[in-house]
Amino acid sequence: MTKTLGKLFLVPALLGNTTPEKVLPQGTLDMVRTLRFFVVEYVRTARRMLSKMKMPCPIEELVFVELDKHNIANPDFMTYLGPALDGHDIGLMSEAGTPCVADPGALIVELAHQAGITIVPLTGPNAMILALMASGFNGQSFRFHGYLPIKNPDRINAIRTLERTSASNDETELFIETPFRNNAMIDDLLKTCRPNTMLCVASNITMPDEKIVSKSIADWKTVKYDWNKKPAVFLLYSRF
User: Fold this and answer.
1) Which of 37, 57, 171, 209 could form an S-S bond across to 141 if both were Cys, CB 3.0 to 4.6 Å?
2) What is the extent of the structural domain holding 206?
3) What is the model's pLDDT at position 1?
């Protein structure tokens, strides 16, 4: 007799300090509350997130496996997905937002597909998509680049390449930065990009102090705001 496998649920996490009911559908919350096994980036963060989701059992009774950043390139199936062989559903959680987008969890999903485990993505906030929606830029053609190089001249060259690509392909270029380097990123964008190139910065999305600004580079030079330590998505859109 064929044994029934558990499913892998992709659990969206909160983007910051807000209430789950504000950004997560009731169906997502109901499903998460049935899970007892989780694959996460950091157990401490996951425990705090699930506590806010009001799990029906004590958090201490949940089973967590952390994604090992040293071995994630060759993940072991039994370590991460073993409970599914016994018919238990598993939740895969990112540190913030949607799993597997700018997140190492994609390799776990790949393993699950190889093993014939059903993948169930749950609905929740995704900072990149929410920023794109609010930018006013091209939402038909866009590309996410993750982090740009930290040091110059590599970073300046990357910005110039994104600007040219956006203009050539008529597409929106999205990227992110470590929050404490936001102001430096904006300074480099203002120094490097053409005056009529459009820049959107979307910070603290879904938070009470959410701020989303879309302006030309020329107009950005009049903006006086401190973006330091605020999680943000950057979007460039250029037309030559």
Assistant:
1) 171
2) 127-237
3) 56
Shared domain check, 218 and 145: yes
Determine the length of the chain: 240
Residue 82 has pLDDT above 80, yes or no: yes
Look at residue 135 and give its three-state secondary structure. Answer: helix
For strand 232-237 and strand 63-66, is the pairing parallel, antiparallel, or unpaired?
Answer: unpaired
Residue that is last in its domain, among 121, 136, 171: 121
- Is the residue at 151 inside a domain? yes
The angle that helices 182-192 and 154-169 make with each other, rounded to 10 degrees, is: 60
Per-residue pLDDT tens digits for 135-177 = 999 999 999 999 999 999 999 999 999 999 999 999 999 999 9
Query: What DSSP line would sit under 33-59, residue for residue?
Result: TT--EEEES-HHHHHHHHHHTT-SS-G
Q: How many CA atoms lie within 13 A of 42 on its CB side?
A: 6
Which of the four pLDDT bands, split at 50, 70 and 90, describes residue 229? very high
- Number of helices (H), then strands (E), belonging to the chain: the values are 9, 10
